[in-house]
Design a protein that fits this description.
Number of domains: 1
CATH architecture: 3-Layer(aba) Sandwich
Shape: globular
Distance between the termini: 44 Å
CATH class: Alpha Beta
Number of strands: 7
Strand order of the largest sheet: 3-2-1-4-5-7-6
Mean pLDDT: 91
Number of helices: 6
């Protein structure tokens, strides 16, 4: 049974991880492996000690890949159950796993990270939560830093019965209006449950003047 949403629309994330009771097959987005689009990008952009933030880290696979690529990595999730689960999976990891709310993050995270990885979190939100999440994600990126967005995509104006609600081009373009320029962009399809699903990966760069 899908967990009910509370008034904030967010508590269902934690309820889902709780109800999974340690079974990753009951977490729809848990592949137990980093996203291939992220791995390919990291192979060309090593961290060399720079600071990175993984948004909505879930069970930690993407965060671990970012750390292996040489970034000093912080990863957070709204669900404290997810954070604890990731910590158990990767004992001794250099990643700092924290319980935090994207829409009410620690003040010291503002403009603090050279790389911010946003993979599949925005598409899990709807309505006002989704609207407010874009500037929240953008706020973490340091001047001159990069924002990497990996998401399912859909045509402009098309309907979705999510979750997830794939991003439309106009939504991805919100980052262009938040002080970023696009360094690279790729569109590709991956097979999921017997069908090809369109994805995008966009690397944005924040201006050095912030």
């Amino acid at each position: 049974m899908s967990p009910d949403r509370d008034a904030s629309g967010l508590s269902w994330f934690d309820a889902l991880y709780t109800d999974a009771a340690g079974d990753p097959a009951r977490v729809p987005w848990a592949d137990l492996a980093p996203k291939q689009g992220l791995l390919e990008w990291l192979s060309r952009h090593p961290g060399e000690g720079r600071r990175a933030l993984d948004v909505g880290c879930g069970l930690g696979d993407n965060a671990e890949a970012i750390a292996v690529a040489g970034y000093a990595t912080t990863a957070f999730d709204l669900s404290d159950h997810a954070v604890a689960w990731a910590g158990r999976r990767f004992r001794g990891s250099p990643v700092t796993y924290l319980n935090a709310n994207l829409l009410d993050p620690p003040a010291e995270w503002r403009g603090a990270f050279d790389l911010v990885n946003e993979c599949f979190t925005l598409q899990a939100l709807d309505g006002a939560l989704r609207r407010d999440a874009f500037p929240a994600v953008a706020s973490f990126v340091a001047p001159g830093g990069r924002l990497l967005v990996i998401a399912l995509v859909r045509d402009e104006g098309s309907q979705s019965s999510g979750p997830p609600w794939p991003l439309m081009p106009s939504e991805i373009a919100r980052f262009d209006a938040l002080g970023f320029t696009r360094e690279e962009e790729s569109r590709y399809e991956l097979e999921r449950h017997g069908r090809l699903v369109p994805h995008t990966r966009v690397c944005f760069r924040r201006g050095r003047d912030g």
